[in-house]
Amino acid sequence: MLSWMLPWEASPTIIALCAACLILYARGLNTAELPASTRSGWRRVSFWLGIGLIYVALQTRFDYLAQHMFWIHRLQHLVLHHIGPMLICLAAPWAVIAAGLPRGWRAPANKLVHSRAVRGAYFCLQQPVVAFVLFTGLIAFWLWPSIHFRAMLSLREYECMNWSMAADGLLFWWLMLDPRSKQEGARMGFGPRIFVVLLAMGPQLAIGAYLSLHRGTLYDVYAVCGRLWPIAPVTDQEIGGLITWIPASMMSVVVGLILWQRWMRNDDRIHRSLVRSELPAGATVGADPVARPVS
After folding, report:
1. How many Å apart are CA 101 and CA 169, to the nearest integer?
2. Is residue 160 part of a domain?
3. Would you place residue 273 in the very low, low, confident or very high pLDDT band (cuts 50, 70, 90)?
4. Does 164 fall in a domain?
5. What is the pTM of this model?
6. Sign of the torsion angle spanned by Cα atoms 275, 280, 282, 283
7. Number of domains forming the structure of the chain
8. pLDDT of residue 277
9. Cys-Cys crosslink for 172: which of 13, 122, 135, 210, Cβ 3.0 to 4.6 Å?
C-alpha cells in the first residue's frame, strides 16, 4: 500500500501545495480567531478527503493507470474536476487557511489577493456565463480526439490538462457552494446557482452519451501507450463515457440539493429575523405578542 501511494511521477509543486494546504489548515484550526462553525467536524473531514483524493489522482500509481486506460482517465478527471474540488469548497476552508498563515505572511498575502490584477482575473472567471462555459467547455476540449491524443503523449500538455481541470473545478464549485447569500457578499443567489449547476448537466450528459454510444474507437492513443488489461477499445470507451454520463452529472444533482437546503435555511433565518424585529421588547419568537397574564 505504501509503494502504491508513493508518487509515480513526483511533482514537487503538487506535493508542496497539498502539504502546505494541510499544514496551514491544521494551524488555522488551532487558532481562536474563527467561529466554531468554520471548524466543525464535517468541514474538516470534507477538506481532508478532498485534498487526499486530488493527491491520489495525481501522485500515486493511479496516475499511471489513468495514462493507460481511458475509463480510469475519466475517473481521474471525475476526481480532479468534480469530487475533490467539490469537497474542498463544501468545507469553505479559506478563512481557516488564512488564519493558519504565519503572522508575517498575512499582510503580503492579503495585499496579493486584493491586488487589482488578481481581483480582476477572479471577477472575470467568476462571471456565471464564463464559469459555465469553462466548466463544460474544458471537458469537451480535453476529450476532443486530436487534442486528447497529443495531451496523453506530451508530459507538459498532460500536466496542463490535469492542472486546468483541478483549478477550474475549484473556481466553479466555490461559485456554486459559497455558503453566503447574495446579500452577504456571494456572487450569485441560491436560485440562480441551482439553475446553473443543473444546466451544467446537459453538456456532460451529451458528451457521456456520445462516448458510450459511438460505434467506433475515438481514442487510439491508448493503443499506442498500451492498455493494461485485455479489454476491447470500444468497451474501454463505453465505460469512460458512462463515468462522464452518470456520476459526473449526478454531482450536479447533489450540489443542487445542498443549495436548496441552504436556500430554505437562509429564508427561514431571514423570516425569523424579521419576526424578531417586529416583536415588542422582551417578547420571544413563538410567543403570542398580544397575550396578557391572567389576573
Report:
1. 24
2. yes
3. confident
4. yes
5. 0.88
6. negative
7. 1
8. 67
9. 135
